[in-house]
């Protein structure tokens, strides 16, 4: 049932993509802001209590409904699984940005590509060249796909999968919402949310990197993972981007890149400005072709996940 739930949810999303600004997500964002207002008194343990309240309020009902439906009807439980996976997946949430940027670069329209990238990442893209636009768009696509697809897959495979898939997505959102906005940066309240998601994402991030290595250039992916993932301040993002770049034969990141933010300050050194002999990271400078390579890598990794899930489902069914 797990394999079919994911397959049906993916097919539905291809036919009817769920917009990132849909009412369900808007309600969760509003709820998170309310929880912050109730619990944020400037201490780490307040953030811990708020996180537990938020995650518990959204995951426990999902688990209870799933448990009840299993005892009523397998068809109803299957439909619930498909609905939850559809709401937690985000394979096409931001694909229109990526596709539009790719089309703009292919047609030589750098201004439109910068505008689209700025709208997607919500950061200043003024003065970026084609290589930098290609790099940032590809990096953001890999990280977004992991957090909206492969991470959800992993937790959905666990017992009470629908509830844990919701937990993963909510934890990912709280790690950003309670740390990245200007009014929340450097506040103690968001530290637990960031730490919690780090551990929740610890295994999924490494499985995603391994999948990229298997479906891409394995040797370069593993080499980059082992030796250059520390370039990023965000360890999980560093592993994914280092392995993904190695798998595609492209150099991602900068010397001290904070991958969660994707874009560095204007005075930061870029990959192109670093001497290649001291850098050592394998691969070519990102270009518009990198975006096409990114699409191919993501789809191959998705097919690998689905194939392994199918084998697992068959083994369980025959056992």
UniProtKB/TrEMBL annotation:
GO terms for cellular component: plasma membrane. The chain crosses the membrane at residues 64-89, 149-171, 297-318. This is Cobalamin biosynthesis protein CobD. Keywords: Aminotransferase, Cell membrane, Cobalamin biosynthesis, Membrane, Transferase, Transmembrane, Transmembrane helix. It is found in: Cell membrane. It comes from the Bacteria. The keyword tRNA processing does not apply. One of its GO terms (biological process) is cobalamin biosynthetic process. InterPro entries: Cobalamin_biosynth_CobD/CbiB. It is a multi-pass membrane protein.
């Amino acid at each position: 049932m797990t394999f079919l739930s994911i397959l049906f949810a993916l097919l539905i999303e291809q036919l009817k993509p769920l917009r990132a600004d849909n009412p369900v997500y808007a309600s969760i964002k509003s709820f998170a802001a309310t929880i912050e207002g109730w619990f944020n008194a400037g201490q780490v343990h307040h953030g811990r209590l708020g996180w537990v309240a938020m995650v518990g309020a959204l995951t426990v009902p999902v688990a209870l409904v799933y448990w009840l439906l299993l005892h009523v009807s397998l068809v109803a439980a299957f439909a619930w699984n498909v609905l939850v996976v559809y709401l937690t997946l985000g394979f096409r949430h931001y694909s229109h940005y990526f596709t539009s940027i790719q089309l703009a670069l292919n047609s030589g329209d750098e201004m439109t590509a910068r505008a689209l990238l700025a709208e997607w990442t919500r950061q200043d893209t003024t003065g970026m060249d084609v290589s930098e636009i290609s790099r940032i768009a590809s990096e953001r696509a890999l990280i977004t796909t992991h957090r909206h697809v492969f991470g959800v897959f992993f937790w959905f495979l666990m017992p009470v999968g629908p509830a844990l898939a919701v937990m993963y997505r909510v934890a990912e959102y709280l790690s950003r919402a309670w740390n990245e906005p200007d009014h929340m940066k450097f506040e103690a309240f968001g530290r637990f949310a960031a730490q919690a998601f780090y551990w929740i994402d610890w295994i999924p991030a490494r499985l995603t990197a391994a999948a990229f290595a298997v479906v891409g250039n394995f040797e370069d992916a593993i080499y980059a993972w082992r030796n250059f993932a520390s370039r990023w301040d965000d360890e999980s993002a560093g592993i994914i981007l280092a392995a993904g770049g190695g798998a595609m034969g492209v150099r991602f990141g900068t010397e001290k890149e904070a991958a969660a933010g994707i874009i560095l300050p204007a005075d930061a050194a870029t990959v192109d400005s670093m001497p290649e002999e001291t850098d050592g990271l394998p691969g070519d400078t990102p270009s518009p072709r990198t975006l096409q390579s990114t699409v191919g890598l993501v789809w191959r990794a998705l097919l690998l996940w689905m194939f392994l899930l199918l084998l697992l489902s068959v083994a369980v069914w025959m056992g």
